[in-house]
Specification:
This protein is α/β, with parallel strands linked by helices and about 600 residues long. It has three domains: about 5-90, Arginyl tRNA synthetase N-terminal domain (Gyrase A, domain 2), CATH 3.30.1360.70; about 120-400, 3-Layer(aba) Sandwich (Rossmann fold); about 410-590, Isoleucyl-tRNA Synthetase, Domain 1 (Orthogonal Bundle). The protein is about 55% helix and about 10% strand. It has helices spanning about 5-20, 50, 55-70, 90-100, 135-150, 165-180, 185-190, 190-215, 220-225, 230-240, 245-270, 280-295, 330-345, 360-370, 405-425, 430-450, 465, 475-495, 510-520, 525-535, 535-555, 565-590, and strands at about 30, 40-45, 75-80, 85-90, 115-120, 155-160, 275-280, 300, 310, 320-325, 350-355, 380-385, 390, 460. The strands form four sheets. The chain has a five-stranded parallel β-sheet with strand order 7-6-5-11-12, sandwiched between helices. A four-stranded antiparallel β-sheet has the order 1-2-4-3. The protein has a three-stranded antiparallel β-sheet with strand order 8-9-10.
Length: about 600
């Protein structure tokens, strides 16, 4: 029986015997005792006051006396107004530490014989530009949520939908065809996705120049945008692509190939991966077929200009375009097709889309359309909606070339991490290979932790300077603490100290030490909560609290120099267990921790 249930059972027994009050154990409110008060677990007494016909303090005193008398688990108690603070016997915490220390999978749910499958979509890049800071938050959230759900017993399929067709892709293709002089990543030394992104910017610049020229000739801005030669050519190219024009398809395959090679490099450095990648060019036709089926069944309407629409006004929404008058599809069409193919490919119990909050309406509509098409799973789609990320300088626009490139940012973080680590002497006595590995770990760890510690639903500003700090709520602070513990354990190994066996539960430990064990013991509940709320921030901030408490302990207590042999071994076991939880928790965030620094 776990501690909380044990206490709830004791409280239920006490109020039944003392006050003839029958109460379910799950109705008994427990809290972690506030640090300023003595105790470990607090029972809220107020619900029993009426039956007891006593003051909250009087009822708390009687219940406390009953519990101490009937269970040796409770060492002592105190009452503050209507709150009964229970101090748990220190032997319980040592027994708990022994269980944690001997369980390498501590914090993770046991895997069921038949796991339910959760598919998590993230990244979703366009092949007309490289990944940027916004993609970094998306990828880090998607990957971390996937790892957290695995730890909670789900079978997870990590998936990506690559938006590799459409007018925006044709813009890059057309600009390269007109202005590229046949240059390639090999001939220029430019990474493929960067090269294609360069031509997306060139298209926008040339398009704006045409608009300006047309407006000087009397066109309105709206007229100029529709009649500019470049946009008409791009639209023709899209039609040619959809009609399988060989020349257009060859150009598309070549430029997309450059981009995929670039994406793969970026994903590898970022430390994210996928189990299955879908491509819009392969799913949109399925979407079009589903739309056509919807027309026949009366779910969708085809207008006189042959465009196809879904009327959602009766559902409190508006009318949604599904196929343009020229027969080309829109994002919604592709998403319908992709959803169908995914459910054909996998026995998915839950489908999660990791997409920014600017797409809230889109997924509301997608869920409704799938339901109208007769798919029972339509209404169960989860849109994991997260906030935008910016730099202190402000917003970014890819078509204007003002985006913070993911590759450049990661390279800068690794470089800064090395400089900072060397200045602080954290890389002394390391080989060049170790320095490079640690710099990468710390730089990317700083980036990932800074982004993931923020509530995903909130907009955030990423500050590179603040993220690489070896003090405070940062990735490097947590990474350094892990390395510090590992250094202590290596010294213990050199001294021949065996800290891998169970510890005698009768040794005297301090309140600080029992609190640390209690904090470590909360890790499984933290992982569970992070899974339920789809929030890596819950794990990140738990990690910081654990590390902060350990560093205070490390400062105030001796470990290797402790004269009491049993106490020395206990502190080594405690340190080892904390290092294990740090490593496991950070791995759920996609962050590596160094063995030495």
């Amino acid at each position: 029986m776990n501690l909380e249930l044990n206490i709830q059972t004791l409280v239920a027994q006490s109020v039944k015997e003392l006050y003839k009050l029958e109460i379910e154990t799950n109705q008994i409110q427990l809290q972690k005792t506030k640090r300023e008060f003595e105790g470990d677990i607090t029972v809220v007494v107020f619900p029993f006051v009426k039956a007891a016909r006593k003051s909250p303090e009087g009822a708390g005193q009687e219940i406390g006396e009953f519990i101490v008398k009937h269970n040796s688990l409770i060492a002592s108690f105190n009452v503050i107004k209507g709150f009964l603070n229970l101090s748990i016997n220190k032997s319980y915490w040592i027994d708990l530490l022994n269980l944690i220390h001997l369980n390498p999978n501590f914090g993770k749910a046991e895997t069921a014989a038949e796991q339910n499958t959760m598919m998590i979509e993230y990244s979703s890049p366009n092949t007309n530009k490289p990944l940027h800071l916004g993609h970094i938050r998306n990828n880090l959230l998607g990957f971390s949520i996937s790892e957290i759900q695995k730890a909670n017993g789900w079978k997870v399929v990590k998936t990506n939908i690559v938006n590799d067709r459409g007018i925006h892709i044709c813009k890059s293709m057309l600009a390269w065809k007109l202005f590229g002089n046949s240059e390639t990543p090999t001939s220029t030394g430019i990474k493929g996705d960067h090269l294609v992104g360069k031509y997306y910017v060139i298209f926008d610049q040339a398009f704006k120049a045409e608009i300006k020229d047309l407006m000087s000739k009397g066109f309105t801005e709206d007229e100029a945008k529709k009649t500019a030669p470049l946009i008409i050519e791009a639209q023709k190219m899209l039609l040619a692509w959809e009609n399988n024009d060989p020349e257009t398809r060859k150009l598309w395959e070549m430029m997309n190939g450059w981009v995929y090679a670039g994406f793969d490099e970026t994903y590898k450095v970022m430390g994210v991966d996928f189990d299955k990648i879908y491509y819009e060019s392969e799913t949109y036709l399925t979407g079009k077929s589903e739309v056509e089926r919807g027309i026949k069944s009366g779910v969708f309407t085809q207008r006189d200009d042959t465009s196809v629409w879904a009327d959602l006004t009766a559902d409190g929404l508006d009318e949604k375009l599904l196929l343009r008058a020229d027969g080309t599809s829109v994002y919604m069409t592709q998403d319908i097709g992709t959803a169908k193919l995914r459910y054909d490919d996998f026995d998915i119990k839950k489908m999660v889309y990791v997409v920014g909050n600017e797409q809230n309406y889109h997924f509301q509509v997608l869920s409704l359309l799938l339901d109208k098409l007769g798919y029972s799973w339509g209404k169960n789609l989860v849109h994991f909606s997260y906030g935008m990320v910016e730099l202190p300088e402000g917003k970014m626009k890819s078509r204007e070339g003002t985006v913070v490139d993911a590759d450049d940012l990661m390279e800068e973080m690794i470089s800064t991490a090395r400089e900072t680590s060397e200045e602080l002497g954290k890389l002394d006595n390391c080989t060049e290979l170790e320095k490079a590995e640690i710099a990468k770990m710390v730089g990317l760890g700083a980036l990932k932790y800074f982004i993931l510690k923020v509530d995903p639903k909130k907009n955030m500003t990423f500050n590179p300077k603040e993220s690489i700090d070896f003090n405070g709520n940062t990735g490097p602070f947590i990474q350094y603490t892990h390395a510090r513990i590992k250094s202590v354990l290596r010294k213990a190994d050199d001294l021949g100290l065996n800290y891998r066996n169970s510890i005698d539960n009768q040794i005297e430990i301090s309140d600080k030490e029992s609190y640390l064990i209690q904090l470590v013991g909360e890790f499984p509940a933290v992982v569970k909560q992070a899974g339920e709320e789809f929030s890596p921030a819950i794990i990140a901030n738990y990690q910081y609290e654990l590390v902060k408490e350990y560093n205070q302990f490390y400062h105030d207590f001796t470990i290797l120099k402790e004269e009491n042999e049993q106490l020395r071994l206990f502190r080594l076991v405690l340190s080892d267990a904390i290092a294990m939880v740090i490593k496991t928790g950070m791995k759920l965030l996609g962050i590596e921790v160094p063995e030495r620094m």
